[in-house]
């Protein structure tokens, strides 16, 4: 397990603009960088990278995250591999778990890997020197280039060939026996693979972890031998050809799963480099999950005989629990006389591509299996259909929409209502409705409202309107405060006392989230404020992690400056305290006691109202200054050309301008001066709906105007 402290340090050191810029061309746009999203097709850039917050967000497809998340998405990596990749970019070494047990396990794994690598090199050299093996591969129409790409080899027809490869004590090592390269009988060791074509099985990183071995004799059984399970090789999670085909899977956006080594090699040689195969076992959910991490489409292509159809059914069972609504599984049903290898040899790659185009989507294949052999005109057959469909469809935990669609189709086939099927399967859901308020008049046909010409309108029927779905958004002042804290973690330290007073003992879920973020930021070892990306990573195990990510991504749209966030938070804390004081006054007032405390609360209420009024005024001044800067930039671009600066009469704004743009360049004509900002002039420059920070309005809204 990678230490959390290292991940935080890595994110603080990494520059997300540099990381993303290695894959896409970024252009400066205000404080952020923009590009066309690398995760979906678009013509207008909607992919934003924030150097200050160290996060990215696509406003088209919704993808967002930090530098590690970007590498996971762009290279389809697991989290640990993405951390190692980012560490490699910045020359940092990932610390390993140094407990004695872990160190011993790593030592053993390295020994097994070394034996496998040396054996693979040995088999490859033997292939070059074996006319029989080369002739066999030529007869199977496997080119030398393909053999080299997959690292094919040959195990000589002898009992002790590996003894020369691992001389002395190495041949007697327990690790060599564990690899399955040699077997032992009566205290004597001998080679496990003899006179066979060798297929090295590589991990996603390219290290040899096992072998498949095929006989060259037509009548020898078994036709294939495979390495046993070892600490570095697990058949249920590894796929043959995944290392060789990974790049093609990502590039083409699909993976093809076939039955055997030869199918993978022939498909790859024919141009289908995205082909992989299970290793002497059925496809497992772990296999499918691994492929869906690389691509959103997986094609299962097995032989056209009855055994191939059974393999397709097992693949369906493996896909159902892991597929999600934005992923697709297809089943390629070849003619009974063909497998992928024979079809390509007989009719060419185009024939196989045509079969791919005719593939059945998962839902169609599932229904074809369920209705096969049933006469649905009989109730008994329909009942059998429902019983067989239940475990398959209910296993779809990650695809609620697809699951519901299938349930509707099964209900239709069984001549049932969806509600009846849900009740039978024990998944009936209560459908909430919002009742019409009793005081509200209900429109009648021919009445004076609500239709344009009078009469009843279904849009106004409140009696059966579905309840609104919950949405993650900034609907509470506390959520907006949380958004500011996520964007600027350093503010958590500034407002630490207020957070402790206001939120630590609060039962509000929104308050609890602020406290969680506050405590996560306080856990920084060196006392330095962490970046928003690092804070988000520290909160990744929280049940509210998705909400935090959504709020921070939303702040990319608002793009509130740090000082603006600070002023918003200051006012918000004062307003929350004022509400607390008012509530306390009501409680004490109804009891008729504690006169002294009531007097104190009244004084505090008056003081808070003055502080809030001052906070509102401070915000107004700051926003106006930001508006001046915005107008200055626009004026410089539109009237004076790029690089020129229009100076404001406001000395404070002038200082900001000189800080932002520098002194006027020599030789430039005297620039026109803008009129000092005034409330009356502001709307002519910025529409009322625009944020004073040059972005959409803050969820707090503008500060209230002072009382006249």
Automatic annotation (TrEMBL):
<dbReference type="GO" id="GO:0005737">
    <property type="term" value="C:cytoplasm"/>
</dbReference>
<feature type="domain" description="Toprim">
    <location>
        <begin position="253"/>
        <end position="332"/>
    </location>
</feature>
<feature type="zinc finger region" description="CHC2-type">
    <location>
        <begin position="37"/>
        <end position="61"/>
    </location>
</feature>
<feature type="coiled-coil region">
    <location>
        <begin position="564"/>
        <end position="618"/>
    </location>
</feature>
<keyword id="KW-0808">Transferase</keyword>
<dbReference type="GO" id="GO:0003899">
    <property type="term" value="F:DNA-directed RNA polymerase activity"/>
</dbReference>
<dbReference type="InterPro" id="IPR006171">
    <property type="entry name" value="TOPRIM_dom"/>
</dbReference>
<feature type="region of interest" description="Disordered">
    <location>
        <begin position="664"/>
        <end position="708"/>
    </location>
</feature>
<keyword id="KW-0235">DNA replication</keyword>
<dbReference type="InterPro" id="IPR034151">
    <property type="entry name" value="TOPRIM_DnaG_bac"/>
</dbReference>
<dbReference type="Pfam" id="PF13662">
    <property type="entry name" value="Toprim_4"/>
</dbReference>
<dbReference type="InterPro" id="IPR013264">
    <property type="entry name" value="DNAG_N"/>
</dbReference>
<dbReference type="InterPro" id="IPR037068">
    <property type="entry name" value="DNA_primase_core_N_sf"/>
</dbReference>
<feature type="compositionally biased region" description="Low complexity">
    <location>
        <begin position="675"/>
        <end position="684"/>
    </location>
</feature>
<dbReference type="GO" id="GO:0006269">
    <property type="term" value="P:DNA replication, synthesis of primer"/>
</dbReference>
<keyword id="KW-0479">Metal-binding</keyword>
<feature type="compositionally biased region" description="Pro residues">
    <location>
        <begin position="685"/>
        <end position="708"/>
    </location>
</feature>
<protein>
    <submittedName>
        <fullName>DNA primase</fullName>
    </submittedName>
</protein>
<keyword id="KW-0548">Nucleotidyltransferase</keyword>
<dbReference type="GO" id="GO:0008270">
    <property type="term" value="F:zinc ion binding"/>
</dbReference>
<dbReference type="InterPro" id="IPR006295">
    <property type="entry name" value="DNA_primase_DnaG"/>
</dbReference>
<keyword id="KW-0804">Transcription</keyword>
<keyword id="KW-0863">Zinc-finger</keyword>
<dbReference type="InterPro" id="IPR030846">
    <property type="entry name" value="DnaG_bac"/>
</dbReference>
<keyword id="KW-0862">Zinc</keyword>
<dbReference type="GO" id="GO:1990077">
    <property type="term" value="C:primosome complex"/>
</dbReference>
<dbReference type="GO" id="GO:0003677">
    <property type="term" value="F:DNA binding"/>
</dbReference>
<dbReference type="InterPro" id="IPR002694">
    <property type="entry name" value="Znf_CHC2"/>
</dbReference>
<dbReference type="GO" id="GO:0000428">
    <property type="term" value="C:DNA-directed RNA polymerase complex"/>
</dbReference>
<keyword id="KW-0240">DNA-directed RNA polymerase</keyword>
<dbReference type="InterPro" id="IPR036977">
    <property type="entry name" value="DNA_primase_Znf_CHC2"/>
</dbReference>
<dbReference type="InterPro" id="IPR050219">
    <property type="entry name" value="DnaG_primase"/>
</dbReference>
<keyword id="KW-0639">Primosome</keyword>
<keyword id="KW-0460">Magnesium</keyword>
<keyword id="KW-0238">DNA-binding</keyword>
<dbReference type="Pfam" id="PF01807">
    <property type="entry name" value="Zn_ribbon_DnaG"/>
</dbReference>
<dbReference type="Pfam" id="PF08275">
    <property type="entry name" value="DNAG_N"/>
</dbReference>
<keyword id="KW-0175">Coiled coil</keyword>
